[in-house]
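ok trying again, last paste got cut off:
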Amino acid sequence: MFLLTQQKQLKLLLMKKHLLTLAVWASAVLVFAQDPRLKGYEAITESTVRGQLEFLASDWMEGRATGERGISLASDYIASMFKVYNIQPLGDELWTTPSRNERTQGKGPEKYRSYFQNFSLIKYKTGENQKFSVINRAGGGETAINFAYRVDFDITPGSQVSSSGKTALFFAGYGFSHQDYDDYRKTDIKGKTVLILKGFPGHRDSTSLAFRKFHPENRNGLLWLEYNKIRKAQELGAAAIILVDPDNNPTLNWAQHDHYPIRGTYYEADRKLRSFYDYRMAAPGNQLGGNIPVIQVSPRAGDQLIAGTDINFQLFEKRTQETMTPASVVLPDKEVVFETSVESAVISARNVVGYIEGKNKDEYLVIGAHYDHLGKFEGWTWNGADDNASGTVGVLTLAKAFAESGEKPEKSIIFAAWAAEEQGMWGSKHFVATLPPEMQVIYNLNLDMIGRSSEKDPAGNSFDMIYSGSTPGLQELTRKNIENYQLELKANFQPSKGSSGGSDHAPFAEKGIPFTFIFSAMHPDYHQPSDELGKINWQKMVNLIRLGYLNVWDLLHDREYLKKQ
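nice, full thing came through this time. structure:
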């Protein structure tokens, strides 16, 4: 009997222990299920991503070119998804229009917010009437050399209207500005045409001290070097820029201007499609900074410009590499004359902007991606599945994730789809330029082309992360989340010291705002009609969105990762 009683007690004890274990497990499961961070994380699924991307990259969107019907449809879709996810509008303030019956009852207009931030752009292209010449007055006489359009020179008009000028000629070396080297130091180029060489001090010799000192930090820096040089000359008041590349004679390209080569091949009948390459965009007037004409000349024309002066391009490059000393000078007895013609039209553009209000209403994190692409031409549609329907879907999915977390964030989160990135990042520029003083943006996450893998990445998990070099904690944060959540991603970290980069993080970087730019891969379908849904790496795209979510979540709760060094 005693033994039986012991057995019963043992069974009872084991049962209690089992029930206790079940209770602890159930409690843990309940806590896990209710964890806001994990609830949002689990909302990022392949099915959600697929559904949105298949619509935005469909032929219905007509390539989402800024100013065209397709992008208007895309913006309406994005705004509707924000509304579904209960993301509050943060676009323009508008007024309701009461009906006649409402007005008779004393109801007047009421202010409300839209999801759309509207702005205007000038869409323009180079006309056929382009003139460029140099006047020599050496020796008391006057001679003029008239250069042939698309034989000796090509021109990118600087404004949305035809322009002309007759100015002095200033040789500014590379037109390069650095804290230890400045071609414009102690010079005045206001109202002058500036002659510059492509490249930077020491660019011909990678072993030279000048190369190591001045070489841009990464591929994006190299791509944006010439753009930044043009912008610098513009800021200093130059009337125009003449760009010479002594190693490249583009005459053949100009002679074949109506041909449209794509990576060594041609479209049907070697015929150029009327495409986005024909057009540029700019803000009306100087609202966000205008441009100046850029005249690209052949080496032969470059030599004619400096004929009779003490300037020698080869000797200048050699001496500058060795001494790292500028040699800028006004070229005496020389004037340049240019005349540009432009065909232009005003178009409408709009960002789509919403937000989740945080506990701290004054600080904002901005999650953005451009939703425009290249449009539709002569029966071809540039659907831009990767560029940048993928990044746009990333923004929408992150909006869904943070909304479904069920937690009011510590800081406010802005979700934005930018317009007109392909033609100069005008959407993000407009947003940054019009930020109210009371809105303190502390971080920007930019998603651009997050859906592909390169041919050099057989595992299909590599991506580039360009981030503000002054905030190294962003790299630490990313490594931690990749490891802790086993995201099967391999990051190529690229800290950026400046604001260079051809995507929508650049306007934020220029304001000193910490940023992360996530970019999955460059591929042969970039800016081609072949950038289609069938080539998307869905798992990689989902993982990159999840990484963005985890990083932003941590930044909402811990500003140490944004601490500048």
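cool. DSSP finds 15 helices and 26 strands in the chain. The chain has two domains: 38-96+349-562, 128-340.
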